[in-house]
Amino acid sequence: MSTKATLGVIIGNRDFFPDRLVSEARADILALFNKLNLNAILLGEDESKLGGVEGFRDAKRCAELFGRHRDEISGILVILPNFGDEIGVAETIKLSGLDVPVLIQAYPDDLSKLDVARRRDAWCGKISVCNNLYQFGIKYTLTSQHVIHPNQPEFSKELMDFVAVCRVVKGMKRVRIGAVGARPGAFNTVRYSEKILQRNGISVTTVDLSEILGRANHLTKDHPEVKEHLEKILNYAPIGGTPDEAMIQIAKLDVVLNQYVEEHQLDATAIQCWTSLQKNYGCNVCTSMSIMSENMLPSACEVDVTGTLSMYAMQLASGSPSALVDWNNNYADDENKCVLFHCGNWAKSFLPDIEISNAPILGTTVGVENTYGALDGRTPASPLTYGRISTDDPKGIIKVYVGEGMLTDDALNTFGNRAVAEIPDLQGLMQYVCRNGFEHHVVMNASKTAGILKEALGNYMGWEVYQHN
Asked: Domain named L-fucose isomerase C-terminal: which ranges (predicted)?
């Protein structure tokens, strides 16, 4: 997430407006990019008139420049210091062949500078640029204010949100997910369409759980890689009362899962847990999943492939780990609060009091001694973005809901991974989730990124997105 983002920059110009506005805009944008630690790819001042784009010749030159940096550019910023050449902007993007998000910025006019020598008319020019992009079939993002100066703090926030949109779009178009094992028979809720995902650039690589467990069972506590992973786990979280033999089982499984991720170059995993792992191997995989999620390789239980896809999307938007949770319980009689829960696989970013423990609910059927590896911990108050990506097979679409709220410090006396969420109009949200056939799993992230996700997944990925307000 720390990689420096690169944007292609188009500075629009119109010949009967003051050319110095282009030079001023160039200086403004380069200073802002330097401040925000962004890379800019734009025409040099000697490659066109002051480095602006005006007419087809400039558009072709700028498109060729963008093409040479195709692998670096994650988005395009269009700057309109004056009315701009709307066709030149559209032609540049079309000729470049880049299928990336586009942000349109336009400078405000000064009421004291509306004479011929100093007026901009970018308010009007932005409408014309958007009209042409729409005609060309090019998707674009708007600033919340129709015109805004790059030096305004609000624009810095919008630009960085746009960078996050670019990050989500780029990541989602080439994500690779590992599905480890079969969906548990009792969990019809996590069924999904591999084919619909593939049409959207999302690849799913499957492996039978027996292959993973077979490889793990061939390892012993004396293998160097097992010792290395055991040490990693011991440094990750206190083990509480977890027996040594259970820790060895957890470490062996961790070795094989990490090898699988590396072999197939995966970005995320969804792992069969309930209840084959406990019955056939004797531990929970939660600790390994938590470590992967903390290291930005999100992992979801119960082979919830679109759940881990949701985790990955939120991670891309925020730059921080996500967690798969259950919409689990009401919180007393507060209609806008609920309990979020899972046996124990959340990234430790959510669990300041993290401890390796067992899974009491699962233990009632498979024996508590076979469930060590689950984590115990309470998530404290923090910002909350929640949401879910799902394939709707009858409709042949991918659908999404997202929203924001808060995690609170309200009292909660239970076990496992747990949190209390406060969400405006929670009852209305639950109505939406139930009426539209979404899963009982949802994803949480400690951020305020619902708008970024809606723009990336709705506008650019073309998915059906509902943002709960």
From this structure: 340-466
